[in-house]
Design goal:
Blueprint (H helix, E strand, L loop, with lengths): L1 H21 L13 H9 L7 H7 L3 H10 L11 E7 L8 E7 L5 H8 L2 H9 L8 E7 L3 E3 L3 E3 L10 E5 L1 H7 L3 H9 L8 E6 L6 E6 L1 H6 L5 H10 L7 H11 L7 H7 L3 H9 L10 H8 L4 H9 L3 H11 L2 H8 L6 H9 L3 H8 L9 H10 L2 H9 L7 H7 L3 H10 L7 H11 L2 H10 L4 H13 L3 H10 L1
């Protein structure tokens, strides 16, 4: 490849040099069109400082672009330098006047330029040479000069790209759809272009608010166009090549462009339209592309068929079960737990969310699960006696469990732990000391019923009662022993 490139370059230089000797000044036509070789040299030194290929594409000189690709194939995957354009903006009054900067921090790719110019054959060549069919490039917009903010008065700033008000990222497929170029769309899809998202924005809803990210699918963009040709083309591709009648295309377009601005599957759920929901799933509307919220909506739906259809389309049982546990939907948990392995994280989620009944359902499943001592401690902290008893019976243990039960004054749990997982004789005095410090008279009584103290130990317990200013415990120890 290097030899071929050098040969072409030497040939180009030879032709340019030889022409000066073989053609007399009288024979030169000043109005003659420059050759591709002459333009290749000119474009390599263009005023925008772009790669020669990109400049040739912008000038619509495909012959020059092809020549440059032979000599500089690496430019197929290169971009222009950073581009900044300053636009003046006038508000409602003079105090609202400021400038906006529009910038392509990552530059513009040769593929993007070729698509926007409609050069299908060149796009195909660029893709074959390694151009990324799913590469997103960001365009930033932000206030650049001093301007007026109603809440803060005059603000003086010179925005860097990362600090700008908002950015927009678009994929190559977006530009092809935007031009309603079905041939270009087909070419990009053939090379693996993905439908979602193909357009992403991040901006502030209002001054000093969190930034909001919005992702838009290729179908949504195509559905808003007057012609349905590209929309139909994308639908057929999504459905695996199956033909679609006009009524179905119209139905899908209505769902994609719904008045609530929801993803299509979300809208079917919100309107309880089970038939349309089923059609959307059957024709390739991707669960992942609809976001995690889709699982949540299906779990919350009163009609269980929505969740069943969703899980039949693709196994999302784990995500659905996690959300059902989080919101305390016990019926859905019972339905899903039989087909999804329980995890310690799921058990802890139920306990944290205040759902002991769900915790018991998780514990009683036949699936093997790591016995997490942290879950036991959490159940003790919450005071779920039945759950703790079940966990102890199943072999859960934690060296801090008894101390936590004393700390939270869980008498029944302390008794269960002493009975099922008794502490050693060496550990008992420390637990009694902890109980004396916290003033837990009944827990101390429980310990002494199981562990009869020696005279020396009893004296030490009384000393601790005095040390921690626990009169009731001192009287109890003195009167009972």
């Amino acid at each position: 490849m290097k030899i071929i490139r050098k040969t072409l370059l030497f040939t180009l230089l030879f032709l340019m040099t030889a022409g000066n000797f073989l053609i007399s000044k009288e024979e030169i036509n000043p109005s003659a069109e420059p050759t591709s070789y002459e333009l290749a040299i000119q474009y390599a030194h263009n005023p925008k400082n772009w790669p020669a290929l990109h400049y040739a594409i912008e000038q619509n000189r495909l012959d020059v672009a092809e020549l440059i690709l032979q000599i500089y194939p690496e430019q197929a995957t290169q971009s222009t330098p950073t581009i900044k354009v300053l636009n003046s903006h006038m508000g409602n009054n003079a105090s609202d006047d400021y400038d906006y900067i529009v910038g392509h921090e990552q530059g513009i790719s040769a593929l993007e330029l070729a698509i926007c110019k409609g050069h299908t054959e060149l796009v195909s060549q660029l893709l074959e040479m390694g151009a990324d069919v799913n590469e997103f490039r960001k365009e930033y917009r932000g206030k650049y000069a001093n301007h007026w903010e109603p809440r803060g008065g005059w603000v003086y700033e010179r925005c860097k790209f990362g600090d700008m008000d908002h950015w927009t990222a678009r994929s190559p497929l977006y530009w092809a759809i935007n031009k309603e170029d079905s041939t270009m769309v087909a070419l990009l899809l053939e090379h693996g272009a993905t439908l979602t998202p193909c357009h992403t924005t991040q901006k502030w809803a209002y001054y000093a608010s969190p930034r909001i990210t919005t992702k838009t699918s290729a179908l949504k963009i195509a559905a808003t166009q007057e012609s349905t040709a590209v929309f139909k083309q994308l639908l057929v591709h999504q459905a695996g090549g199956h033909s679609l009648d006009e009524d179905l295309i119209s139905l899908f377009r209505d769902f994609v462009t719904n008045p609530e601005n929801l993803p299509a599957l979300h809208y079917a759920l919100s309107t309880c339209d089970i038939d349309s929901y089923m059609l959307l799933l059957e024709h390739g509307f991707d669960i992942h592309d609809q976001g995690e919220e889709l699982i949540a909506r299906a779990v919350e739906a009163k009609d269980s068929r929505f969740l069943e259809l969703l899980l039949a389309r693709e196994d999302q049982s784990s995500a659905a079960l996690t959300y059902a546990v989080a919101i305390g939907n016990i019926d859905t948990v019972r339905y899903l737990i039989e087909q999804t392995a329980a995890t310690p994280e799921l058990l802890k989620l139920a306990l944290t969310g205040g759902n002991p009944d769900i915790a018991k359902i998780i514990l009683t499943q036949p699936h093997s699960m790591t016995k997490d001592g942290e879950a036991l401690t959490l159940a003790i902290q919450k005071g779920y006696d039945e759950v703790v008893a079940l966990m102890i019976e199943m072999g859960y243990s934690d060296k801090e469990a008894l101390a936590k039960a004393i700390e939270y004054n869980r008498l029944n749990i302390v008794e269960a732990l002493i009975t099922q997982d008794p502490p050693s004789d060496e550990e008992v005095p420390n637990h009694i000391k902890h109980s004396i410090e916290l003033g837990r008279v009944e827990i101390i009584r429980l310990f002494l019923n199981h562990y009869l103290p020696s005279d020396e130990q009893l004296t030490q317990y009384k000393r601790w009662a005095i040390e921690y200013n626990q009169l009731d415990i001192l009287l109890f120890l003195s009167n009972c022993y």
